[in-house]
Amino acid sequence: MAWLDTPIEKPYTLRNLADLLSQGLLGSMSRFSHFQIVEWCSHFVDEYDMSPDSELPLTPTAAIALADDVVVQWELFLATQYTLDDLHKFTLADVVLPKSYFEQWLNQVLALPTQH
């Protein structure tokens, strides 16, 4: 699938985090590249860091830690699987993380308590 390089325009909610992680499970059949999902998670962390009083519809510490883990695991995956020369041969949107990563993250998101 040819993905767009544009950022994902979704509000930073538990539902959207779960939806994007579900999309990640689809690998190359996803509506979004894994890079787009990682970028969204990075912005989610930044959004919370810039406005810690914002009302997130989930446990903030656990949600932020989970989104941050997505970003960290992406960086580790790139560092351990590719050389710098490899990374110049394709775009980051071409990188597909292992399905098991998304299964684990999605299970963690679904286990988060929500605020009602």
List unreliable stretches of 5+ residues: none
* Global shape: globular
Number of domains: 1
Percent range of helical residues: 55-70%
Beta-strand proportion? under 5%
Distance between the termini: 38 Å
Structural class: mainly alpha
Q: Give the overall average pLDDT.
A: 87
Q: What gyration radius follows from the Cα positions, in whole Å?
A: 14 Å
Please provide a written account of the structure:
The chain is mainly α and 116 residues long. The protein has one domain (14-111). 59% of the residues lie in helices and 0% in strands. The chain is built from five helices and no strands. It has helices at residues 14-25, 34-50, 60-81, 84-87, 99-111. α2 crosses α3. The chain is globular, with a radius of gyration of 14 Å. The model has no long low-confidence stretch (mean pLDDT 87).
Describe the SSE topology:
Layout: H1 14-25, H2 34-50, H3 60-81, H4 84-87, H5 99-111
Short account of what is shown:
By secondary structure, the chain is mostly helical.
Labels describing this entry:
59% helix, mainly alpha, globular
